Amino acid sequence: MPAGLPLQPRVELLSQGARSSEVFFLVSGLVKLVHVESDGRELILGLRLPGSFIGSSAAIVGGDCTVSAVTVTPCRVQRTSAHAFRALLEADPKFSWQVHLSHGREIESNAGRLGELGCLRSRDRVESVLRALAAAVPTSPPPNDQRIRVPMRHYEIARLVAVTPEHLSRLLHELQDRGRIRLEARSIVLLGT
């Protein structure tokens, strides 16, 4: 399998409202899915991890992208045209099954995220996102604690957990006071992981 095209953070792979002409396979890195309302309000709908197909649903149905997809960390992607992607789906049952599995994981992830937004307290959502980021962004953890260099800006994390940046700041300090995390200059340490 080719290593993939290297991309820097903040590269837009897909643009909301644009026709899907390409599909990306995320080899490494982290991508955020962003939805912007007509009034400018923005919500980060989710994160995509290595092994994800990005833009595949829009390519299959031949429609416009409902979200923008933007790299969060340095990434490596494999890209193909939407036309070639659809042809491969029709011709190769094993490839088609891999895409089905990827879509199934996305559906499960989205359902879990909706459940968290509806049921978990904001503090618990923040902690869940920090643990997901720690799993997605490899580090060299100490024996019991895990230091993560958060690849997203605070306002982005706030949008991901559906709180204001000010409330996120309060929640992070509350988690620190409870002994769940330690805030450092450019990283967060998850305690007792």
Q: What do these coordinates show?
A:
The protein has 2 domains: 5-118, Jelly Rolls (Sandwich), CATH 2.60.120; 121-190, Arc Repressor Mutant, subunit A (Orthogonal Bundle). The protein contains 6 helices and 11 strands. The protein has helices spanning 56-61, 82-91, 93-119, 122-136, 154-161, 165-177, and strands spanning 5-7, 12-14, 22-28, 31-36, 42-48, 53-54, 68-71, 75-81, 146-148, 181-183, 188-190. The strands form 3 sheets. The protein has a 4-stranded antiparallel sheet with strand order 1-8-3-6. The chain has a 4-stranded antiparallel sheet with strand order 2-7-4-5. Strands 9-11-10 form a 3-stranded antiparallel sheet. A hairpin with a 5-residue loop joins strand 4 (31-36) and strand 5. Helix 2 (82-91) crosses helix 3 and helix 4 (122-136) packs across helix 5 (154-161).
Count of DSSP E strands? 11
Count of discrete domains: 2
Residues in helix, %: 40-55%
β-sheet strand percentage: 15-25%
What would you report as the Rg, rounded to the nearest angstrom?
18 Å
CATH class label of the largest domain: Mainly Beta
Q: Architecture of the largest domain in CATH?
A: Sandwich
Mean pLDDT: 89
The biggest beta sheet reads:
4 strands, antiparallel
Order of helices and strands: EEEEEEHEEHHHEHHEE
Uncertain segments of ≥5 residues (pLDDT<50)? none
What shape does the CA trace take?
A: globular
Strand order of the largest sheet: 1-8-3-6
Q: Cα distance, first to last residue?
A: 33 Å
Q: Number of helical segments? A: 6
CATH topology of the largest domain: Jelly Rolls
Assign the structural class, choosing from mainly alpha, mainly beta, alpha/beta, alpha+beta, or little secondary structure: alpha+beta
The name of the CATH superfamily of the largest domain reads: Jelly Rolls
